[in-house]
Design brief:
This is SLBB domain-containing protein. The chain is of the alpha+beta class. The chain has helices at about 1-20, 45-50, 155-160, 205-210, 235-245, 285-295, 365-370, 390-415, 420-440, 495-500, 550-565; strands spanning about 65-70, 110-120, 125-130, 135, 140-145, 170-175, 180-185, 195-200, 220-225, 230-235, 255-260, 265-270, 275-280, 285, 300-310, 310-320, 325-330, 335, 345-350, 360, 385-390, 445-450, 465-470, 475-480, 485-490, 510-520, 525, 540-545. Among the domains are: about 65-80 and about 265-335, Outer membrane lipoprotein wza fold like, CATH 3.10.560; about 85-100 and about 180-260, Outer membrane lipoprotein wza fold like (Roll); about 110-175, wza like fold (2-Layer Sandwich). A hairpin with a 5-residue loop joins strand 7 and strand 8 (about 195-200).
């Protein structure tokens, strides 16, 4: 019993965190008539949202050079997704062997040399550079190679052999492999320690083996390579990330790679190719320099600078054109924004019509302005014009996610009264969670119901809107839990049950009491409230939700209905 209590308690902690995140969704403003039928967040979610809302005092009319003040908020913690360069260390190359020797590689004790001689004297051997830095050649004696560059190896061997063999002896020498070394990686890395590799392995490989630089504490600008008491090199990884420059530093046994503590940091957000945290060594950094790293998007026009001063948070707002000479300091937050109104918008017309499919309209154009340009065909259903909008689609998706998270939390935190009940609940929970995953993949249509509105012509159009003109095709679509989903010729004398019978009747998973009819104009009716079927209607038979626990059944049934309305599909609850 205690085992199940511990599991339920652990899962509850995870779900509470998920609910808190879901509660942060801002309530969207209402549109004219919208197919948003999802339930509002639970009371617990609303309480969590209010508890997490920051106190803010801000000048909503801030313009160029204006500022605002708010209560100081806690800075967000760094992660591999927020720190510039941190995704370099993802383990992709930590176990890969070293590359080819560079021409400037310096031969050291322990290196292996392949030597082949032919002609008057034959030899095929592998030589190891001894602790004195020499290799021993038969009939020649010791040859010093310590400190010789790789590109000079052949020349050194030729010189030594020529002192003994005057003619008819030829040779070829090359490095066989990097010297096995043990390198210490210390400082602000995720897993400091000693790591084995070869002298040809790069600095990045050793850092990757150590788990990479700690994004919260380590520096990407100051990575030092030490040998004994001397610092042999200091590497700036920003040069590698932005310019492709990486100094070739040959590592030896016992070398130390030390990652210094992180210097000053500025956070970049908003309309930038690299919305990350950036490090700099000086006390301040110019916005022009920061922009070279963050790379603002072409349509960004303004910069919002948020600065913590004591226990206050001040906000400045500038245009990009006038802000390049400004400086920011550690802890500041820079957000690139687009503070401009569109001069024109594009709206697409789909469906049954003869007019152009894409229209460029002035900002502020209304539905009536566009419908006046549409050239209908005899088969156009002009009374059932449909409007689809991206902002509504996003809103519907957000509300669906809230409903699914609420169901997920209910499932995962449900308690069991016995071992047998726990087993049943576990199997049922797995089935429900799989269904939730499927539901999360669905995309709402974003439809705005305008056909029956007397003010539809006054509705403002938005950029990216789609106007769809249905066709009078004389068909009724029957889908969902019927044996043979199909399109059936419209007959004004047929009722809902007649169309379902024509589609083979109900399946064994159908809920015959839950039938939704979607009309061509975008509205919905239940069978109970439906007077008659019209041309272009879609009959959707919803599935039964057969679960062992009534609360789950009610929640899932409600979401199934909401999905049918907002997405236009019936998501069954089969295994």
């Amino acid at each position: 019993m205690s085992k199940h209590w511990f599991i339920n308690l652990s899962i509850a902690a995870v779900c509470i965190a998920g609910l808190a995140q879901a509660a942060k969704l801002d309530p969207a403003s209402k549109l004219m008539v919208v197919n948003d039928t999802f339930a509002k967040p639970s009371a617990a979610s609303q309480i969590a949202a209010q508890a997490n809302a920051p106190a803010l005092v801000q000048n909503s009319n801030a313009g160029y050079g204006d500022s605002a003040t708010s209560v100081l908020s806690e800075p967000s913690k760094a992660s591999a997704n927020t720190v510039f360069g941190a995704n370099l260390f993802s383990g992709n190359f930590s176990n890969k062997g070293g590359g080819l020797f560079s021409p400037d590689y310096l031969i050291a004790s322990g290196d292996r040399i392949i030597l082949r001689m032919w002609g008057a004297f034959d030899l095929d051997t592998e030589l190891i550079v001894d602790p004195q830095g020499n290799v021993f050649l038969p009939h020649v004696g010791p040859v010093r190679l310590q400190g010789v560059r790789n590109q000079d190896l052949q020349k050194s061997i030729n010189t030594a052999i020529a002192k003994v063999f005057r003619a008819n002896v030829y040779n070829y020498a090359s490095l066989a492999m990097g010297q096995p070394v043990k390198v210490y990686v210390s400082g602000f890395v995720n897993m400091p320690g000693m790591y084995e590799g070869t002298s040809t392995d790069s600095l990045l490989q050793y850092l990757d083996r150590a788990g990479g630089i700690d994004p919260e504490r380590g520096s990407f600008l100051d990575v030092q390579i030490k040998r004994g008491n001397q610092t042999r090199a200091s590497i700036n990884l920003y040069d590698f990330l932005t310019k492709g420059n990486m100094p070739q530093v040959q590592l030896a046994d016992g070398d130390v790679i030390f990652v210094a503590p992180r210097h000053n940091v500025v956070t970049v957000k908003g309309l930038a190719s690299n919305p990350k945290q950036f490090e700099f060594t000086s006390n301040t950094i110019e916005l022009a320099t920061l922009g070279q790293l963050a790379k603002p998007l072409p349509h960004a026009t303004n910069i919002r600078i948020t600065r913590n001063t004591g226990n206050k948070q001040n906000t400045e707002y500038h245009t990009i054109a006038n802000a390049n000479q400004l400086i920011v300091q550690s802890g500041d937050e820079v957000e690139y924004t687009a503070d401009k109104k569109p001069g024109t918008i594009t709206v697409r017309i789909e469906g049954e019509h003869l007019s152009a499919q894409e229209y460029v309209l002035p900002y502020g154009a209304k539905v009536g302005d566009l419908l006046g340009k549409v050239e209908y065909t005899p088969n156009s259903d002009s009374a059932s014009v449909q409007l689809f909008r991206n902002s509504v689609k996003d809103r519907q998706k957000a509300m669906l996610d809230v409903a699914l998270k609420s169901l997920e939390a209910t499932v995962l935190t449900a308690r069991s009264g016995s071992v047998n009940e726990a087993k049943i609940r576990s199997d049922e929970s797995t089935k429900i969670l799989n269904w939730i995953d499927r539901a999360r993949q669905l995309e709402p249509t974003g439809q705005v119901f305008i056909a029956q509105s007397s003010r539809k012509n006054d509705l403002l159009l938005e950029n990216g809107d789609i106007i769809r003109i249905p066709v009078k095709d004389g068909l009724v679509l029957v889908g969902g839990e019927v044996l043979f989903p199909n399109s059936i010729a419209y007959d004004e004398n047929l009722r809902v049950e007649d169309y379902i019978s024509a589609a083979g009747g109900f399946t064994q998973d159908a809920d015959s009491s839950r039938i939704v009819v979607a009309h061509a104009n975008g509205s919905f009716s239940s069978e109970k409230n439906l007077k008659k079927i019209s041309e272009g209607d879609r009959i959707m038979v919803l599935p039964k939700v057969d679960t062992k626990f009534m609360q789950f059944s009610m929640d899932i049934s409600q979401i199934v209905y909401q999905i049918a309305v907002a997405v236009g599909v019936v998501l069954d609850f089969k295994n």
